[in-house]
Design a protein that fits this description.
By secondary structure, the protein is α/β, with parallel strands linked by helices. It has two domains: about 160 residues, Rossmann fold (3-Layer(aba) Sandwich), CATH 3.40.50; about 220 residues, no CATH class. The protein has 16 helices and five strands.
Length: about 400
């Protein structure tokens, strides 16, 4: 079988796990003695590492002279009501050390720092979601902060700390993921979202029939390697070939896309872009959940194949309904919110596009992107909506240019 992907290119461009595993990291965790105890415990647990190459220093802010370590890759201040937090953050930044402020009192911490003349950048303040059944703990300023962390709030704090790390420590983000488990999922989700948007763009700008397929497939294979790398999974040549063959099966999804394109030629590129986005999301999200549950590289190909097949089924359902074919074979199936219902929604938008191409650009892109997100078993989040809007904006622009040229 001729694989639709250059395996050597995937290996060459895949992240070097061994190098990242041996990359030295230095982190200082500064604890304000007035910080909420549950946040202190969560941050300390998050930065506990078994890596021999990760140095983590724990320092209590108890009034003794503050001396940043200039060799740190990053620092964390677990903040409470101390008036010195803003000043210490300024000292760390002046020493060239990026600093995260972790707290469940974000408004209070910011107000105190502002009042002391040391304002904190909003992007550096990392706080958990407010718990659903929030119980305010005693707080001197009466703002209702902090809240006791429940499981959901604690997980959101981990996620936001991980997002801060991969954004701020970009060059060493894989090393951080290998040393600190809370970074793995945010890094993997970032890879999935970036690759999905890239593939949506390829669907829009590649005009030669079939030329977009190898590019999208290469991107998807690289994405899956990046996810495996984030979870510390080694990748042999045999595994790469197996994965490439599975990813190559996404051609089935592209074949369905071409049939939809034939049905709605005016919005063909929007359909291609949306399906390129959703197929990538489905495979990437499935891989993340698999590794989160303790899976290893040996079973990844099977998991990805099942996610790919779900995306193909969804696209096929939409095509059959839109084109008036027989009832879809999986009409009774449900995947992350009702597979047949999602397909019918997408198909309705496709039919609408046939009647009014320009006016249907946004709903068509939105419905197909959201359908793919549901096929992947995840919510159609702001990322999905943003991608759909981007697809639709380009679609509208191309329609406008096409009309003005006639």
């Amino acid at each position: 079988m001729q694989l639709p992907v250059d395996v050597k290119a995937v290996i060459d461009e895949a992240t070097n796990i061994d190098e990242a595993r041996e990359t030295p990291l230095s982190v200082s965790v500064y604890i304000d003695e007035t910080a909420p105890g549950d946040v202190v415990a969560r941050v300390r647990a998050a930065f506990a590492s078994k890596s021999a190459h990760a140095r983590v220093s724990l320092v209590y802010l108890d009034g003794r002279p503050f001396a940043p370590f200039v060799g740190d890759d990053m620092a964390v201040i677990v903040a409470g009501l101390s008036p010195e937090v803003g000043a210490h953050a300024d000292e760390l930044r002046a020493a060239g050390v990026p600093v995260m402020i972790a707290t469940s009192l974000p408004a209070l911490v910011k107000d105190i720092a502002d009042a002391q003349g040391h304002p904190l950048p909003q992007a550096d303040i990392v706080a958990p979601d407010v718990p659903r059944d929030a119980r305010a703990l005693p707080a001197s300023a009466g703002s209702g902060e902090p809240y006791a962390l429940d499981e959901r709030a604690a997980a959101s704090l981990d996620r936001r700390m991980g997002e801060w790390v991969i954004e701020t420590c970009h060059d060493k983000r894989l090393a951080f993921a290998l040393a600190f488990p809370f970074v793995r999922r945010p890094l993997s989700v970032d890879a999935v979202n970036a690759t999905s948007v890239q593939n949506a763009g390829i669907g829009l700008v590649v005009f030669i029939p079939g030329a977009d397929m190898p590019i999208m497939t290469l991107n998807q294979a690289k994405m899956l390697l990046q996810i495996a790398a984030a979870y510390g999974e080694p990748m042999s040549m045999e595994r790469v070939k197996e994965l490439a063959a599975v990813v190559g099966g996404a051609f089935a999804c592209r074949s369905v896309a071409r049939q939809l394109v034939a049905f709605v030629p005016a919005l063909g590129w929007a359909v291609k872009a949306a399906i390129g986005y959703t197929g990538t999301q489905a495979m990437g999200r499935a891989a993340i959940e698999y590794f989160e549950e303790g899976g290893n590289i040996a079973g990844l190909a099977g998991v990805v194949a099942r996610a790919r097949d779900k995306a193909v089924e969804l696209a096929e359902d939409a095509r059959e309904i839109a084109c008036g074919d027989t009832a879809p074979a999986v009409a009774g199936a449900t995947t992350g919110g009702g597979l047949s219902g999602v397909a019918r929604t997408a198909a309705a938008k496709v039919k609408g596009a046939a009647r009014s191409a320009a006016g249907a650009a946004v709903p068509l892109a939105s419905s197909v992107v959201q359908a793919g997100a549901q096929a992947a078993g995840v919510d159609a989040s702001d990322v999905a909506r943003t991608a759909a809007r981007s697809v639709a904006d380009v679609a509208r622009s191309r329609l406008k240019n096409s009309r003005s040229s006639h």
